[in-house]
Amino acid sequence: MRVSYSSLETFQNCPAKYKFAVIDRIKLPKSKEAIFGTIIHDCLRMYHEPSRLVSPTQEELLQYFIQKWDPLPYQDKQEEQIAFGEGVKILKNYFEKNKPSDFKILNLETRFEAPIIDKSSELHQVTGIIDRIDLIENGIFEVIDYKTAKKMPSQEYADKNLQLAVYHLGIVNRWPSIEKESKPVKLTLYFLKHGLKLTTEKSIGEIAQTKEKILSIIEKIKKEEKFEPRPNPLCDWCEFKPYCPFFRHQFLKEKTPSDEEIKTLISEYFQIKSQNDTGVKRLAEIKEKINDYCDTADIERVFSEDGYITRINQQRFGYDMKKLKAVLEPLGKWDEILEIDSPKLKKIISTLPYSIRQQIEEIKILEKEFKTILATKTKSIK
Questions:
Q1: What are the extents of the domains in the chain?
Q2: Is 102 exposed, middle or buried (0-12, 13-18, 19+ CB in 10 A)?
Q3: Rounded CA Rg of the chain
Q4: DSSP 169-213
Q5: How far apart (Å, rounded) are the C-alpha atoms in residues 211 and 217?
C-alpha cells in the first residue's frame, strides 16, 4: 500500500474524511487557514533557497509575501487585514531570528518515502514532504517542519508526534548512513506565530513502535467498510462538512415540512430538558421522531436556532472466550482475567506486542450497536 502521512493522520482523526479525500477524491477549495500556511511556506522557501548568491532583504521577503497574498478566502476586508497583518508579523519576526548564512540547508520541500514491511512480507510506502532539512554540528541532520497554528503545544506533543517519527523514517531511508553510523536525527516543529521551536529525537525502540503504529493504521484502513465520521475538535475547519452526516443538515438547500418539524422538535427538546426531568415521556417521543428523521435523511446531526442534536453510534464488543484464552494463556495473562473485567482486559491488551494485539482484535465480536442522542445548546450572543 502506498499512502501519505497526511492520509494516515486523516484516517485516525476521521475515517469519513479519509474516504471523501482519498477514496472518493472529492476536490474542494482549500480553507483560508491552509492557503495562509501555504503562502508562508512559499515565502520561507524563497528566503532560504540555497541557490541564491545573496540573501533576500526583509523588504524583498515582504514584497514576495504581498505578491503571493490571496484575499479571496476571507469573508470581509477586516478579516483579511487581520490575517495579512499576522503574515507580515510572522515574516518580520522570522527574518530577525533566522539569517540564511547561519544555516547549512541541504534541502527544502523534500519528498520522501519510508518503506515498511508487515508480518506477511507486504511492502508499504509512507510518503510525505519535509519543509526543510539542515546539517548541524557533528554532521547531524535536523528536520524542520513549519507550523502556523495559533496554539503552542507542550514538549510532550513533540515527543509523541507521529508526523516527526515518520519524518525520521523518511530521512533515514534517504540517507542510510544515518542509521549505519547510529547518528541521532533532530526533529523540530517550528511554531512561527510564537517564534519558538519544539525539538525531539527518536530512540530505536520508539522507531519500532512507530512502524507498528503505522502498520496498525494501514491494517484498519484495509479492513474498514463503513468509514464512519468521527466528530473531533478539527471539525470546525473541515472542508467536507456538506458531505458529512454530522453537518450536512446545515447545508440543505431545499426545505421540506419534515425539516421544519425537526427544528420545532429540537426547540421543544431543549425546553423540556430545562424542566428538571419533567416531560420524560415527551422527550422519548421526540427522540424517536429525530431518530426516524436522521435515518431517512442519512444524517447524524440536526440543527435549529436553539442548538443541534447529535446521534452517536455506540458499540458493545465481546470476545470469543476460547480463542481469547488460546492467545492469552501462553503469555501467562489468562489468570488475570478469569472474571471478565473490561477495563482490566483493555489495560492488559494495551501492554501486549503489536502482533498479539492484532490477534485479539480479530476475535472481537460486536454484541450490540445502538444510537444515543447528545443535545448541544447554542450559546446566546449578548
A1: 14-101, 105-223, 245-314+372-377, 321-362
A2: exposed
A3: 26
A4: HHHHHH-THHHHTT--EEEEEEETTTTEEEEE---HHHHHHHHHH
A5: 10
pTM recorded for the entire structure? 0.73
C-alpha 108/C-alpha 93 separation (Å) is 20
Give DSSP secondary structure letters for 328-354: HGGGT-GGGGSS--HHHHHHHHHTS-H
Q: Quick: pLDDT tens for 190-218.
A: 999 999 999 999 999 999 999 999 999 99
- In this prediction, residue 379 carries a pLDDT of 64
**256 contact partners, CB below 8 Å, separation of at least 6:** none
- Please determine, looking at this structure, whether the domain spanning 105-223 carries the CATH number 3.90.320.10: yes
Q: Which alpha helices (DSSP H) does the chain contain, by range?
A: 5-13, 15-18, 32-48, 58-68, 77-97, 155-159, 162-174, 177-180, 204-223, 257-273, 280-297, 321-328, 342-350, 354-362
- pLDDT tens per residue across span 154-172: 999 999 999 999 999 999 9
Residues of the chain short of pLDDT 70, as ranges, are 276-278, 336-343, 354-355, 366-368, 370, 373, 379-382
